[in-house]
Write a structure and sequence with these properties.
The complex is a heterodimer of chains A (about 160) and B (about 100). Chain A is α/β, with parallel strands linked by helices and about 160 residues long. Chain A is built from five helices and five strands. Chain A has a single domain, classed as Mannitol-specific EII, Chain A (3-Layer(aba) Sandwich). In chain A, strands 1-4-5-3-2 form a five-stranded mixed beta sheet. In chain A, helix 1 packs antiparallel against helix 2. Chain B is of the alpha/beta class. Chain B has a single domain, classed as 3-Layer(aba) Sandwich (Rossmann fold). Helix content of chain B is about 45%, strand content about 25%. Chain B has four helices and four strands, in the order E-H-E-H-E-E-H-H. Chain B has a four-stranded parallel beta sheet with strand order 2-1-3-4, with helices on both faces. In chain B, strand 1, helix 1 and strand 2 form a beta-alpha-beta unit. The relative contact order of chain B is 0.24. The chains are: A alpha/beta (about 160), B alpha/beta (about 100). The interface between A and B is medium-sized, with 28 and 28 residues.
């Protein structure tokens, strides 16, 4: 069964002027909260988790981060997306404290039950590992990014 | 179809471990191995490994050797896409051993 509404048009950001990592995470999480996807505790949980278990990844095309929280802070699954103009420093997933990556794409994941979203998570990783797709997405406007991502994750 | 087991861990046992597990399941499935997997938090590895007795453990975060002969692999290539073919084959070889 195809995954529907994995993304939300209101949760695609590509014109934020924020440069601070925690501020961006806070901003995205707050928007997710306002749209009802996550609980009030989600923002703090994501920021705290990022400190202990960072989620920065260097893929072929760009630095990517997939911040997320334990499912107890989530009401309904969604992926918020932020493409920043100036890459932001994240720590590398599973890396040492010194290992950093400059992140261009933030996919903030709200996952209520990982078992229910295996395909979605798997497809998301296929997208962000695909250099051609990512190079294309980065040139698009908000609506087109939304359409494109939905198309990629449902096929 | 031969059945094998994998324990896959990441920071909070939600997203990253699921991505890794699914890729490994598909790879094994194409080679006629039915892979059963369970995701967990890194901290849960020792107790779950005891209980589940997996053929392999894959972890995103560094883990100490458990001293129980179960091979442990780094799951990061599954997420970055860099070096993933080699890593899949390495893990597959350990699974069928």
């Amino acid at each position: 069964m195809p995954v529907r509404n994995t993304f939300d048009k209101q949760l695609i950001f590509n014109d934020l002027k924020i440069r601070d990592r925690n501020e961006i995470l806070q901003y995205m999480a707050t928007k997710m909260y306002e749209r009802g996807y996550v609980k009030r505790t989600y923002a703090q949980a994501v920021i705290e988790r990022e400190k202990v278990y960072p989620t920065g990844l260097q893929t072929e095309a760009f630095g990517v981060a997939i911040p997320h929280s334990d499912s107890i802070h989530v009401n309904q699954a969604v992926i918020a997306v932020c493409i920043v103009e100036e890459p932001i420093v994240f720590h590398v997933m599973g890396g040492t404290e010194e290992e950093e990556v400059l992140v261009k794409f933030i996919f903030m994941l709200a996952i209520d039950d990982p078992k229910k979203h295996i395909e979605m998570l798997s497809k998301l990783s296929v997208i962000f590992q695909d250099e051609r797709k990512m190079q294309e997405i980065v040139t698009l406007e908000q609506d087109a990014i939304y359409e494109k991502l939905n198309c990629y994750i449902n096929h | 179809m031969m059945k094998k087991k994998a324990l896959v861990a990441c920071g909070c046992g939600v997203a990253s471990s699921t991505i890794v597990a699914k890729k490994l399941e598909d790879y094994c499935g194409e080679r006629d191995i039915k892979l059963e997997w369970r995701i967990c938090k890194a901290a849960e590895i020792p107790s779950l490994a005891d209980m589940m007795k997996p053929d392999v453990i894959i972890s995103i975060t560094a883990v100490a050797d458990l001293g129980n002969q179960i091979p442990v692999f780094d799951g990061k290539p599954f997420l970055t896409g860099i070096g993933v073919a080699k890593k899949l084959e390495e893990i597959y070889q350990a699974i069928i051993k």
